[in-house]
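In this supplementary section we document a worked example of the pipeline. Step one takes a protein sequence of length 308 as its only input; no multiple sequence alignment statistics are reported here. Step two produces a three-dimensional model, which step three serialises into structure tokens for compact storage. The input and output of this example are shown verbatim.
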Amino acid sequence: MTEPSPTTRAGVAVVVATRDRPVLLRRTIESILSQAYDGPIEMIIVFDRSEPDESLIRSDPDRSVRITTNVNTPGLAGARNSGIALVDKPWVAFCDDDDEWLPGKLTAQMDDLERTGSKFSMTGSLVNYRGEDHVRRADASEVNKTGLLHSRIFEIPSSSFVIDTELVRDELGGIDEALPGSYGEDYDLMLRAADKTSLSVVEDPLCRVYWHGSSFFFERWKLIDEALEYMLGKFPEFDTAPKGKARIVGQRAIAQAEIGDRKKALGSVRDVVKLNWREPRWPLALLVMAGMPANLILKVLHRFGKGI
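The serialised model returned by step three reads:
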């Protein structure tokens, strides 16, 4: 592991929620602790519905690791909130337990936060599917409340987030644990944060996101439909962004078709066409209704670094 420089900059706590991924988790830890950042990094690993691994604990004041368990709602949102509650650093970051930070990530973001005065930083990403990286540079000009209503901006994963601790914990109240299955909790957080602060974007891909069948959202179509319905109800602003609303309703149509709710799926398809007939998801929903498995479509899209 690369030795970090002497500490001079603001401390950052990195919350990693984990569940039954011991090998992938160690790769994540290595990528974070090896950051050449001139400030202390503390990892808070939150074990969610799995046994804590005390062998991961490190007491180095510059690069420490502590472990805890999820004391809130089971799932990603509750686990992240359990970690956020323990943070005593001015900044908190996230990384999924199957992703990794690339060299220079944290320094680039902290430099950008200092330059812009923002309280929330994010970056572009590499999406790795079956060993192949797909570059997804973020477009900073799109990352604001209006842009987020139109698009989730999938180039930006939650594993890139660095946020002012007081903002995420006190002003925003943490991660929304009412979201079904914690699906879309990162999008929800971005939308809420955009009302409180400008969003700082380092466009370069500075984290690697791994797509694979062990994702806990893979194939959970009913849960995805419920979570997207919740999001539309929570943010009435989507009514002012027909393109963005059509995207979400299109996602719901695919999920509804896959779980066999043909009536709802057809209704969602009609709604999408009214909102934005150019939205590409409604034809996919029709394919699913005709018998093509949604999971097959998803796997094909993943080969090109795309998602539904």
